[in-house]
Amino acid sequence: MRSTRLVSSRFRQAILPAVLAGCVPLAANAQTVTNNGQGTNSGYFYSLFTSSGSATMTFPLDAQFPGNYAITWSGVGDMVGGKGWQTGGNRSVGYNVGAAHGFNSISVYGWTTNPLVEYYINELGSLFTANATFKGSVSSDGHTYNTYEHQQVNQPSIVGTATFQQYLDAWGGSTMGANHTVTTGTHFAHWQSLGMPLGTFNYMILATEAFNGASGSVNATVW
Amino acid sequence: MGLLAIGLIFLVALWAVAVASAAVTAAAVTAADLVWVKGGSFKNIRSNYYGTGVTVGDFFIGKYDVTQKEWTEVMGNNPSKFKGDNLPVEMVSWYDSIEYCNKRSLKEGLQPYYNIDERAKDPDNRPDPTFGDLDPIKWTVTINAGANGYRLPTEAEWEYAAGGGQKSRSYTYSGSDNVDEVAWYWRNSGDKTLSGAWNWSLIEQNHDRTRPVGAKKANELGLYDMSGNVRQWCWDWHGELATHVADPRGRPSGFGRVWKGGGWIGADFCCNPAFRGSLAANARGPDQGFRVCRGK
Question: Closest partner residue to A49 among B199, B275, B285, by Cβ?
Answer without folding.
Answer: B199
